[in-house]
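User: Quick sanity check before I run a bigger batch. Here is a single chain. Can you write out its predicted 3D structure?
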Amino acid sequence: MLYTTASTTPAVFNVIDVKNNGYIRTFELEGVAQSWRHVIAPDGTVYIGAITSSGTGELWSYSPVSKTVQKLKVIGSEKSVWSMTTDPAGNVYIGTYDHGKLFQYNPKTKELRDYGSLLANHNYIRSMAYVDGYIYAGMALPFEVVKVNVETGASELISDEVPGILGIEHEKLEFAYDMAVVDKYLFVKASGEAGLMMVYYNLQEQKWEDKYIGVDPVSGKGVMSYNQIPVADGKAYVPAHGGIVEVDLATLATRNTGISFATSLRGAAWINMEDPELTPDRTIVTIQANGKLSALDVKKGVRKDLPGVAAKGGPIPIHNMERGTDGRLYMSAYPGGVGGVFNPATLESSNFLMGQAEGIVSAGNKVYYGIYPGGYIYEADISGGKMSEPKLLFQIGSGQDRPYKMEYADGKLLIGTIPDYGQLGGALTIYDLASGEKQVYRNIIKDHSIVGLAYKDGKIYGSTTKSGGLNTTMPANNPEVFVWDMAKKEMTMHTQLTSLTGLGNHRMISGLAFGPDGLLWGGVDGILFALDPDDLSVVKQKNIYPDVKDYGMWRPYYSRWGEDGLLYIGLANRMTVVDPATMEHRTLTPSNFAMSFMTLAKDANGHEQIYYTDGTKLMMIPISKSDSVKTAVRNGCFEEPLNADGSIPGWSNAESGTEVEFSLSKEQSYCGEPGQSLKIIDKSQSDKGVGSYLSDPIPVVRGGEYTAAAKLYIEQGLIEGSRTDDSGIVLYFYDKSGAQISTVPGTLIKGMPQKEWIDISATGAAPERAAFARIALYSSKWNMMIGYYDQVTFEGQSPGGLQLKAAGEVSVGDTFDVILQAKDVTDLYAVQAALAFDPALFEVVDVRMADEFGSAATAHLGWNQDGVKGKINIIATQLGDRALGGNVDIAHITVKAKQIGDPAEVVLARQSFFTDKNGDLTKLSYMLSEDVKLGIQFGYDVEDFNKDHKVDAQDVALIAKQLGKKLDDSNRMMDLNGDGVIDISDIALVVLKTLESMK
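Assistant: Done. Predicted structure follows.
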């Protein structure tokens, strides 16, 4: 049997029949996100070292007897379980991160013994082994091995000789990464800047042997990971040098078996596969990170991979996403092992096996993946709508581990990387796809990593983060933007962006992309900027999210330019669209949602849409100019005078502690006349200091995305805490009964600039039962401030509207229909429409209900008119519980054209409105924002040659001048009787028409 855990949501423990490559049973581990270690006790119990989704270490077990799993213990306050082993009595030993602690679990007493941290300033016990009453613990950082007496807890450091054996400075050895007891030896893998190596500790003599497996000088590959080392006939088999290396346990001499295997042994055992191609007692079976089983015949020197179909799991969080040149979306998961492809045009998807991609880029008919750990670059062919298995193209090397930023330009891959664990100094890698030449430039900006790349005219524009590999201290100097000349192979320019308004301490600049305007755009904290590429001077800037400070680590901002000329950017994990000309912006994701990855791609209709990730889900936001409209917020600029009772029109005091005061003030104003704003004085950080002013209800469409926004001026204030309710604005949704059903907190005002107007907003989706929303201008008990609110706005999905339609041209004396229509409505129930027209030009003959709106049994329509003033009123309603959606004809208005005039139009007045099926309870209606005008096109008489809507002597003169002339395009319309000539009979027809009009 093979036991493995798929790191999904939740993690799934699998029991697999190796011979048949099928699963026997699976178990979801509730709350667990990952597992990096399993160990089998002498009684067959499988212990699982787990890491929860909240970052806590746990111990689970599987019993092959009862065939059940159970959670045994939470491992203290430790964040994760990294290593485990057992002793002959069945006790389980556990090594942890982040305090480098050793624990013992006794399955008989179910007690957990804490031995404490084994070494000061060593966060990891990365590996361990049990031998004769002692635990040998592999530590980091740096590399150490500690021997612990499990009875007394006494420990001693035994690894002082290792750096000398390897010929490496101690500080360049980072991890005692893996351990295994093999015969009389302890095999210990050491990792660090010099590569991956393995040393031998003689357990009988308690000393280190003066031999080791180092990095292969030809392939550049060292020793891969292992947690079990197979042994047979005095030989041990180690994953090293890109294959399987045989170690003679008598002499420690090594031999390459010829098997190609450039990955780790994640569990390994001798198994008779009953396959004639494989030696029965000399075949190692192991599982790869991508789920494939590999059979390694060490006698024949061959490898046979089996389909990775056995292990089952749930959905895995999406870790990266990019659009390919074929329009499909290519994704990677975390933890690694699975990739995905999604076609936004057909909605088809598929999965494939692959490691954890930190960066993805597509060029030609290929997709390239930057894989962690190890900084490997893989290539997949996507020709013909298919996808080949990703193949290793090259390894970056130079101590680089995470290829987070990948771009393609001029036949080359451009890669920005984060260095290995414990190291500073990322690199820019340039790889020529035609020649295979690789150039790696490390420490372009000393001790910084590269997370932003853009290319123009032979130059690479890059940006940096101060974050290095894990467990490093960031350098003091600020991140920078730099220019790398590809021809000169040198940096020609670099600058910090400390001149940006509102920028304080910051650790990352990213999201670089050239816009249609030729400027270099990017983001830092909540600030969007555009630079002149010639000198890197700041041309444009906007502090879109002033609350964002010192943001980021490795993952860059993602920027995409749309076909509409707008910039779509995940600025501080907030999906934002920006007009580069005006710098006006919209936030497209809810205030409390952190977006990780985004791109643009075309759907089945060829329309560009936004695709982004939400954990295990791929989400889409449609790009449409008509989807979002501004809805009036009554008294949003606080210009209306107070009501007679002293209240503020359009607003109500929902909550006001004894230490909070609201009032209208002229001290500060952003909009409106006579220049007023809502002033708040919050004097207390307690329940007495909670205040909230609510807008009047605003109707919404269920499922629609809405943004409530306002301007806030903080005169002075102490703004503390980090709770999500420390918002300056909150958006509430209510059902039709008026019950609050959803709360969307907005911009946190902690650390916001003072004595200037700042933008605050709250964005969220109206729940399924939502009928209306209200905006709260808010100060929590965690805030103290004197501030002013102004220009409150509400924007989101349009509830629909009313419009007028008429078909074709009309003539004087004709009757025609004007159609009153509802457009893009949801749950339409009743309509009240006021129309106006010029009574000299038109006369309303009749109004009747449209068939689409209903019949006498399902709907009712009433109307009246003032023919003298040219006004008509229509009221139409559904009956019972019936409601309509989409585009709906409401009424046909039959009109007679009396005479021609200018303007000739019918106007639907702005006081017209409609309500949905909840209107009787919510008392809300959807008002038109402006008059809707329908121009009536009058046709011309055939004798009206000068198109002035009358036939007179001017038209007679025009035809008379054409008498007897040859017909062409300029006069053909004057041949009124169609006999092929312009003669006196045609002129007579025009004269007759003129005389008739003079009666």
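The chain has a mean pLDDT of 88.

User: Great, the batch can go ahead then.
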